[in-house]
Design a protein that fits this description.
This protein is of the alpha+beta class and 79 residues long. It has 2 helices and 7 strands. A 5-stranded mixed beta sheet has the order 1-7-6-3-4, covered by helices on one side. Helix 1 crosses helix 2. The protein is globular and about 55 Å long. The protein starts with 10 loop residues before the first strand and ends with a strand.
Length: 79
C-alpha cells in the first residue's frame, strides 16, 4: 500500500525594518505571529521557532536583513 503525503507550501511574509537589526521576540510581535511579548518568549523557549532553518531558543537573537524566522508554517523574512 502506498501513502501519498501532500506537503503544504509555507506562506511567506516580508517585513522591512528601519534599523540594523531587530530582536527575534520583537520581530515576531511586529509580524503579528504572536500577540504579546510573553507569548513570543514562550514559543521561542519551547523551541517552536526556527531562524535560518535552525531551532532558536534565544529571544534576544538579532535578526538582520536577509534573515528568516519560521513559526507555525509561516516564514517571516527580514528586509
Amino acid at each position: 500500500m502506498k501513502i501519498k503525503v501532500k506537503v503544504a507550501e509555507k506562506r511567506q511574509v516580508i517585513k522591512k525594518i528601519d534599523t540594523d537589526f531587530i530582536r527575534l521576540d520583537a520581530f515576531l510581535k511586529m509580524c503579528d505571529a504572536v500577540q504579546t511579548g510573553g507569548h513570543a518568549k514562550i514559543v521561542i523557549q519551547e523551541g517552536e521557532v526556527r531562524v535560518n532553518g535552525e531551532i532558536c531558543t534565544q529571544r534576544g537573537k538579532k535578526l538582520r536583513p536577509g534573515d528568516k524566522a519560521e513559526f507555525e508554517n509561516v516564514v517571516f523574512i527580514v528586509e
